[in-house]
Amino acid sequence: MTPLPSPTFEEELNEFLKSVERRAFKRTVYAVRDEEAALDIVQDAMIRLTQSYSERPSNEWPMLFQRILSNATLDWFRRQKVRNAVFMNIGDLEAAVDDDDSGDFNLLESLRSDQGGAEGADDSAARTEILGQIEDEIGKLPTRQREAFLLRYWEELDVAETAAAMGCSEGSVKTHCSRAVQSLAKALQSRGITL
Fold first, then answer.
1. Whether residue 80 is found in the same domain as residue 104
2. 3 domain residue, yes or no
């Protein structure tokens, strides 16, 4: 049996970009609440990674891409602010560090089916409805809380990686995540969803 040839550098980069595309798009849609703008931002981040950092070792690409995507999203908000002359409440973007809760709560994991067999149609429909409601509530979180929450629990980055991607301290990440989880729990409870 002939061994498979190792992937070329270009193939490896393409595979990486394919692997992050959907989650990056969804995260960006949550942030900007505009699918076309989100698509542009993700594509711009991919182009920046390819043009500026593709020669870096492939194990560095995930963190570089997350940082580029965060910066591209912030750039979009800056352009919107100038273009529309909208004043953004800085308090929503930079919460003070007053909390040191570092619990590893995984909201989405708690909704995964842990049954061995197939899930019934009613259960599947209910789960889809609950996930839709969770997505709605995630979309309502303040920008920095939403970003921290998605990086920690959607992208599954640890606190240090999330802090590096967001350009803030680990304490800020913990604060944003704690507040996001509290807000989500309260909002979902008001909708009658208990996890």
1. no
2. no
Residue 70's closest CA among 7, 146, 134?
A: 146
At 182, list the tokens: 């509290």
pLDDT in tens, 36-89: 999 999 999 999 999 888 888 989 999 999 999 988 888 888 777 655 533 333
What is the reported pTM? 0.52
Q: What are the φ/ψ torsions at residue 129 (nearest 5 degrees)?
A: -65, -45
Whether 83 and 148 map to the same domain: the answer is no
Please give the residue range of the domain that contains residue 129. 91-190
Indicate if 129 and 103 belong to the same structural domain.
Answer: yes
